[in-house]
What we know:
Helix content is 35%, strand content 26%. By secondary structure, it is of the alpha/beta class. It folds into two domains: 3-180, 2-Layer Sandwich (VC0802-like); 186-421, Rossmann fold (3-Layer(aba) Sandwich). The strands form two sheets. Strands 9, 10, 11, 12, 13, 14, 15, 16 and 17 form a nine-stranded mixed β-sheet that branches. It has an eight-stranded mixed β-sheet with strand order 2-3-1-4-8-7-5-6. The longest helix has 22 residues, at 320-341. Bound molecules: S-adenosylmethionine. The site of S-adenosylmethionine has 22 residues, from helix 9. S-adenosylmethionine (SAM) is lined by residues 199-202, 225-226, 228-232, 247-249, 252, 288-290, 307, 309-310, 333.
Amino acid sequence: MPQYIFALGRIPAISIAELYHVLPTLAPAKPGQLLFRRLFQNWLLVDTPAELPDPQELLNRLGGSTKIIRLEQEGLSAKELPTHLSALAERTFEGREDKVRYAVSIYNLANNPDKILKSCLLETKKKLKASGLSSRFINNNFHNPPTAQLAGEKILSKGAEFCALEVDKKWLLGRTIAIQDINAYSRRDYERPERDPKQGMLPPKLAQILLNLSGATPGDTVYDPFCGIGTVLQEGLLMGINVIGSDISADNIKKTRQNIDWLKKEYLPRAESHRDKALPDLRLFNKDATLISKSDLPKPPAAIVTETFLGPPVSQLPPESQIELNLAKVEHLIYGFLEQIRPLVGPETRLAMTILCYKNGPQLIRLEHLLNELPQLGYERTEILFPEVLKELNLPEQNRYGLIYDRPDQIVAREIVVLKPV
Ligand SMILES: C[S@@+](CC[C@H](N)C(=O)[O-])C[C@H]1O[C@@H](n2cnc3c(N)ncnc32)[C@H](O)[C@@H]1O
């Protein structure tokens, strides 16, 4: 079975949930075949029944992973590592006549990573030279190269990066097969014509995570009833998904249109996955989400993917009475939307949403009332992380139906939930 190591984003449970939903669609597995073998810090070791068909394309659509490494060897001692790493480099570059470039990254080692990195780099250089290969390593000062440098050097197309991770005093050795395209994310976030920091913008990576948790695949139709400036729609289009967006603000619909026009002009023609393919469909309209009718949504979408209204912007935790008021207002709005949309969704439609959640230090103030009312509205929460994964990876049980997306300094956090009609 091929084995891969995924470098996970800031919140590992969210990244794992995303992988658990996406990987089986690419490397189809019988139940129990896709094994999430181990989680060590931010690294997840996965066995898949088949090779991943296009790792870079996969990584481009994962909001929660930053690198994919193909595992080549495990159980190595620190002493054995440089020899095995240099042999892997030799195999990788066999037959190359140009000057090859390479990088080595060492992870997880608390003590002296530079020392071991140095011996891996020098041993590799020596071994490549002995086999008649001219080579150059790109590591500066015997440190791991940053992602921007790996991209700048085009390390995956022109050379290779070899990675070694220490787990329980033994080493895993592998070769990087995909690296996050940080420039593409920042272009999609910061260079689009319309942005609205006041509104609490949805990061493109979180939009991808929601789309992936919804189970939508290329050719499906996804609806965002609170589309704002169109982040979910833009990420959906890039994944080959047809999108419908609406918002109560006519101004935001205009901004979404401008952003999507920009995306089509600037981005889509260059996106690998869209070469020679017709662009997915886009439909936008201006409407209150609590008033959506069959004429707006004649056919049930495969999924509803949305960042719901997160309440008025706040820079510090509001007084308790204000919190209650804000929660009640937001709850009322989401309640009204869920009630209205219920007859318009099909049995297979999934609703992947972020909902408001305040943070008071370690305490979370959630939309409890709304979550308890879901059965009366004709929905239930689906499992985002399954019990066997929680157990295997030692993750808390509360991650099963809801995941919190936050930053340490934030007061307004988001709870990710996935609903299905019942
Ligand atoms: C948090 S923003 C969504 C952010 C969006 N996903 C993005 O990245 O641009 C919430 C949006 O909900 C819209 N909104 C608020 N109340 C609404 C309602 N009753 N019906 C539809 N949209 C509403 C606001 O205009 C705003 O654009």
